[in-house]
Amino acid sequence: MQNEFWHEKWRTKDLGFHQAATHPLLKKYWPQLAPARHSRVLVPLCGKSSDLLWLERCGHRVLGVELSPIAARAFFAENDLSAKQSEQMAYKRYCAGNIELLCGDFFALTRDLVGEVHAVFDRAALVALPEMMRLDYVKKIRALTGPGVQVLLVIADFDSNEISPPPFAVPEAEVRRLYQGWCEIKVLGEIEAQLRDKTVLEVAYQLLVR
To answer: What is the pTM (predicted TM-score) of this model?
Structure first.
């Protein structure tokens, strides 16, 4: 799945993966992670998600990373936010209040570019990637974080024969395969959700980087 796939999705407004409302598992379980009020929270592959706004309202400094400039501009325009723009290496950085958005290739990020990260919220990144790309994604998250960082991971589990990806189904065994070597893993809870008129299970995990 190449970058052009996602650029085309945003160009054609084929945004079935976008959720307008703040994710209910974020609202329910983020307080259990108990990150400090001014913690810096990384949200990979964020699109134009309203989750960024919710995290900012919790008092956090939020860093979203998004490939598509269409998505980045739409986030600020649709939320009536005036963003300062700057160029940093191969990325465009947008800043408005306590929300930053880096527009560019997530897989090329460096820790120097991202800066300090205290927590991560992933509800749209891991499930957006086919199996062959997930290990590289997890390695990048590991490189951008450090011991003590907490991750709230939300995945979807469903019958892949009934729903064509993306998003991809990520069963618990896959979560453990990817993270148990360097994180403590706790299943927090689950909810049923609708995806293309099918019922899927969304599961929230708390990961603690060792």
So the answer is: 0.95
Our CA angle for 6, 122, 132, nearest 5°, is 55
pLDDT value, residue 195: 82
Q: From the CB of residue 9, how many other CB atoms can be counted at a distance below 10 Å?
A: 19
Strands 40-44 and 84-88, by their bridges, are unpaired
Segment 109-135, tens digit of pLDDT: 999 999 999 999 999 999 999 999 999
Answer whether residue 72 shows pLDDT above 80.
yes
Q: How far apart are CA 13 and CA 100, in angstroms?
A: 23
Residue 57 C-beta-side C-alpha neighbours within 13 Å: 9
Helices (H) and strands (E) in the chain, counts: 7, 9
C-alpha–C-alpha distance, residues 146 and 12, integer Å: 38
d(CA 117, CA 205): 18
CB 204 within 8 A of CB 153: yes
Q: Letter for the amino acid at 133?
A: M
Burial class for 21, CB neighbours closer than 10 Å (0-12, 13-18, 19+): exposed
List b or e across 170-208, with b for residues whose CB sees 16 or more CB atoms inside 10 angstroms.
beeebbeebbeebbebeebeeeebeeeeeebebbbbbbb
17 has pLDDT over 90: no
CA distances to 4, 35, 44, 49, 101 from 120, rounded to whole Å, are 26, 10, 8, 15, 14
Strand-pair partners of 203: 155, 190
